[in-house]
Design a protein that fits this description.
Blueprint lengths: L11 H7 L10 E2 L6 E10 L5 H6 L8 E5 L7 E3 L1 H9 L4 E8 L2 H7 L3 E6 L10 E3 L3 E3 L2 E3 L4 E5 L2 E5 L4 H23 L6
Parallel strand pairs: 2-3, 3-5, 4-5, 5-6
Antiparallel strand pairs: 1-6, 2-7, 2-10, 8-9, 10-11
Helix pairs in contact: 1-5, 3-4
C-alpha cells in the first residue's frame, strides 16, 4: 500500500494546482469544519441510496484507507450515519468520501472521522444492493481507482492517480515554497498616501 502524506500536510487547493487544477471532486464538502483526510482510496460503487456495499467494504478495508463511494450523487437517502461511522472509527480508516448523502452530522463530528459528502438528509438508506467493491469509480466528476491518493480539507476533496502521486507531491511542495515567499513579500507592502 502506498504511503501518502499525513492528513492536513498539504492543502487540497495546492494539490489541485500541482495537477494543473484538475482532480477536484465537484460538490463534495466536509461535513464538519476542520475535517482533513489523506490516504489511498478504497472504492465502492453502489446504487443510489443503498449502503449494502459500504458494509461489504468494511470486511476488507485496511487501516488508513479512505472509503470512496460513488452513490450516483443522490442526496435523498443517507448512505452513512452514526453507526456506520462508529465502525469506520473502530477500523481506523482514513475517512469517508461520498458522492451521496450522510446523516447524524453532530454525532459524526463528535466521532472525529473525516466525512465528506454531497449532502445531508435524515432519510436512511436501502440495504439491498447491487454494488461493486474495489473497481474504478467516479466521484464528483473525477475518476478514482483503488489506491489513488485522496486528500481532503475544508475546501473539499482532490484525487491524484496513484501513478502520478510522487510527481504531484513534489510539485505541491514547490508551490508551497513559492507561496511562502509571496506571503512574505505581501507583508512587506506599504500603503500609499
Amino acid at each position: 500500500m502506498h504511503h501518502y502524506p499525513p492528513p492536513g500536510a498539504f492543502p487540497v487547493a495546492t494539490v489541485s494546482d500541482a495537477m494543473d487544477r484538475f482532480g477536484v471532486a465537484d460538490g463534495i464538502r466536509p461535513l464538519w469544519p476542520g475535517a482533513v483526510l489523506s490516504g489511498p482510496a478504497f472504492t465502492v460503487w453502489t446504487r443510489p441510496g443503498d449502503n449494502k456495499g459500504l458494509h461489504a467494504a468494511f470486511e476488507t478495508i485496511r487501516r488508513g484507507e479512505v472509503l470512496v463511494v460513488n452513490g450516483g450523487g443522490d442526496v435523498t437517502r443517507a448512505l452513512i450515519g452514526e453507526l456506520v461511522v462508529q465502525k469506520a472509527r473502530a477500523l481506523e480508516i482514513g475517512g469517508i468520501v461520498l458522492d451521496g448523502a450522510a446523516r447524524d452530522v453532530v454525532e459524526l463530528a463528535g466521532l472525529g472521522v473525516p466525512v465528506f459528502a454531497r449532502g445531508v438528509t435524515p432519510a436512511g438508506p436501502w440495504k439491498t444492493g447491487p454494488y461493486r467493491v474495489g473497481g474504478p469509480i467516479a466521484v464528483g466528476g473525477v475518476p478514482v481507482g483503488p489506491g489513488d491518493w485522496v486528500v481532503g480539507d475544508d475546501d473539499g476533496v482532490a484525487v491524484v492517480p496513484a501513478g502520478e502521486a510522487d510527481d504531484v507531491i513534489a510539485g505541491t511542495r514547490r508551490l508551497l515554497e513559492g507561496e511562502t515567499e509571496r506571503r512574505a513579500a505581501n507583508q512587506r507592502l506599504v500603503p500609499r498616501d
